Amino acid sequence: MYKWKKWPIKYIYKKDFPKQLKEIKNCPEKLFYRGEWNNNIFEKSLAIVGSRRMSRYGQEVIGKFMPYLVSNNITIISGFMYGIDTESHLQCLEYGGKTVAVLGGGLNILTPAENDGLYTKILENNGLVISEYDSGFQPTLWSFPQRNRIVSGLATTGILVVEAGIKSGSLITARIAREQGKNVFAVPGQINNSIAGGTNYLIKNSLAKMTTEIEDVLGSKQLMVQEDLFISNDPIEREILNGLKIEPLSIDEICIKNNLNITQANSKITIMALNNLVFEENGKIYIKK
What is the enclosing helix (H) or strand (E) of 170? Predict the structure, then answer.
């Protein structure tokens, strides 16, 4: 527990910040950080923000985009809180990418407590954990919105809002990003889902670009697609994956659709799960990539 404390707290002054951060309104004069600061990590960077009450849909959206973001060397910046923030950090690390967490409190204050392991993983994988506050500063209601200007300010590609309620702090980040002249991308959601109200509002009012494909964020000309890293070469596994792209399936349904017996299906699913292609929940198999 608290392995991250073995990384010393350092600081960097405004004159050494990456260019895009220096230009924001109310730019901090100094930032505290753990890790090894190198401005190159921010040359291609995207902030991902969203609801703390992440749905399965939000998780799947991140899973759809993250392989391509990492393969294009995009650093993922987020706020380290529950839900979309945590999932963005975790999936970025899972795919071998670099991620930066901007805290709403001091670097010695673990919020949320469940992210103890994540804090360490970010540092072990050459990422950064950043705060403008002294190491023992306890986060407050105002410090989280305040840190959002740094989350968006560090991003060069823009910010992606995955899920957000109509009164979500993510909409504050989106507004700040627009004021900073950054691109704002928003993923549409179901109209009867409260945590899609904010993203749908941004899209409806032309405050964000509707985002349904990774090309919407990176552009087709710049996109380096490395699908072979993320799909199976086994023809039966490919068929199973194609079915799961449409909807999650039970083992029995996979057997029927792919003309397999239960032993064959279980063997394939076990291998695919070990290769991080699928996962099982409540009796259904879901595609992960």
Answer: helix 169-179
> Strand 184-186 to strand 75-78: parallel, antiparallel, or no bridges (unpaired)?
unpaired
CA angle (15, 171, 185) in 5-degree steps: 80
Handedness of CA 107, 160, 57, 55 (dihedral sign): positive
pLDDT tens for each residue of 173-190: 999 999 999 999 999 998
Angle at alpha carbon of residue 78, lines to 40 and 59, rounded to 5°: 125
Contacts of 74 (CB under 8 A, 6+ apart): 44, 45, 46, 97, 157, 218
Higher pLDDT, 245 or 41: 41
Q: pTM of the prediction?
A: 0.77
Neighbours of 274 (CB within 10 A): 9
Q: Would you call the peptide bond into 139 cis, given omega within 30 degrees of 0 as the criterion? A: no
Domains of the chain and any CATH numbers: 3-218 (3.40.50.450), 231-287 (1.10.10.10)
| CA–CA distance, 49 with 66 (Å, rounded to integer) | 14
Tell me the CA distances in angstroms from 131 to 9, 34, 53, 168, one per residue in order: 10, 9, 24, 21
